[in-house]
Amino acid sequence: MPGGTELDGKVSRQVESAVKEADLVLFVVDSTVGVLDDDQAIAKWLRTSGKEVLVVSNKVDTDKREFDKWEFLSLGLGEPFPVSALHGRKAGDVLDEILIRVPRREGDDEVEVVVERQGPNRTPGIPRVSIVGRPNVGKSTLFNRLVGQDRAVVHDMPGTTRDSIDTVVETPDGPMMFVDTAGMRRRSRVDESTEYYSFVRALRAVDESDIALLVIDATEGITSQDQRLAERIDASGSPVVVVLNKWEMLNADERAEIDIEIGRKLFFVGDAPVLKMSALTGKGVQKLRPVLQDSIEQYHRRVPTRDVNRVIARAQQQQPAPSGGRVLYALQGASDPPTFTLFVNKELPPTYLRYLERSIREGFEFGSVPIKIRVRKRAE
Ligand SMILES: Nc1nc2c(ncn2[C@@H]2O[C@H](COP(=O)(O)OP(=O)(O)OP(=O)(O)O)[C@@H](O)[C@H]2O)c(=O)[nH]1
Ligand SMILES: [Mg+2]
Predict the structure, then answer these.
(1) 153 lines ligand 1 (CB under 6 A)
(2) What span, in angstroms and rounded, lies between the C-alpha atoms of 325 and 220?
(3) In angstroms, rounded to a whole number, what is the distance separating the alpha carbons of residues 23 and 1?
């Protein structure tokens, strides 16, 4: 430990021995004063110690101060964790991170790591189902059906819904939040500013949702805008359920035609369920229930660490990572959505991570639920 006076010397020796015995070092810095010379000296010393270090930037009392943490990236010890020790702000997050980083020992297996995904507008533990699609396809009609009352305005005029509205519904499978969104059209056609903001909010609803119902007006077939929307939802990582609405309007030929179209035009959403229904009459809407139930169950699921490691080991045996990369240990750090942490000896290429993600998905039959993979590098 760098330092000058006698007291410094004593402190240093204590710190040195504490660090030597530690599995993880929390390096606390003061976000209100920024990086000091001493911080830099300590960081340099910590980097040579070979220990796992978590930089905790303290005194982050408000969201606004959150940016102050970035200055501490220059310490070369990874992304700092902002907290306010005084107010206990984000203390839980740091605890979660510690549990993930500290290696488990024999007999340690009962330690459960719970990291709850939280963000703006999120109610922890309640899955969000967003209803999205082009204008006038019947999103609000479906929303009203699902929540069991006429909460959203329905009108035969594109652009009726301007802002997202959400409602929590008690279902036999537990509480579920449904979000009705504004119809989305191609960006080039979005000229009015209110419409632009509706569009942005609808996209945000997708990003924050756990399942997206993509509603398509079957009487118009699958348009390029539907395709683009499907791509966008897919990119957000939300599992998609395709709803072919206004189905009661189609004759037999038209129905056969759209069945073919689906495979051709929406192939990239993979094996997303496709449901045909009439939100107006209610026919077929009940088919959503088991599909949603299934997604929700997967969403809450937690896989035992032993099993995760077995699946990862098998995947690595079948196809080892290139140039000596290896997953040393893996665990499911969080559910809602399932989040897996892989401890690796060196960086693994994205293609290999996707392979591992697929192995986990198939190994535990996660279906189309989004899985998050976090990677932590550590010495063997
Ligand atoms: N025939 C038929 N009409 C439907 C069906 N679902 C909705 N509609 C009608 O389609 C029109 C638009 O319905 P909305 O629910 O307002 O559509 P929306 O997708 O919310 O529209 P925006 O909010 O403008 O994006 C209304 O006239 C509905 O009655 C359906 O299953 N069959
Ligand atoms: Mg609407």
Answers:
(1) no
(2) 50
(3) 18
Indicate whether 333 and 368 sit together in one domain. Answer: yes
pLDDT for 149 equals 81
Indicate whether residue 282 lines ligand 1 (CB < 6 A): no
Ranges of beta strands (E only) in 108-172 are 128-133, 165-171
Same domain as 286, residue 139 = yes
Per-residue pLDDT of 38-93, as tens digits, reads 888 888 888 888 888 999 988 887 777 777 778 888 888 888 888 877 766 776 67
Q: State the amino acid at position 340 in one-letter form.
A: F
C-alpha–C-alpha distance, residues 66 and 60, integer Å: 6
- Cβ atoms of residues 244 and 215 within 8 Å: no
For residue 125, the CA-to-ligand 2 centroid distance in Å is 26
Helices (H) and strands (E) in the chain — how many of each? Answer: 10, 12
> What are the percentages of helix, strand and coil residues in the chain, rounded to 5?
45, 20, 40
Residues 295 and 305 in one domain: no
* φ/ψ of residue 337, rounded to 5: -85, 165
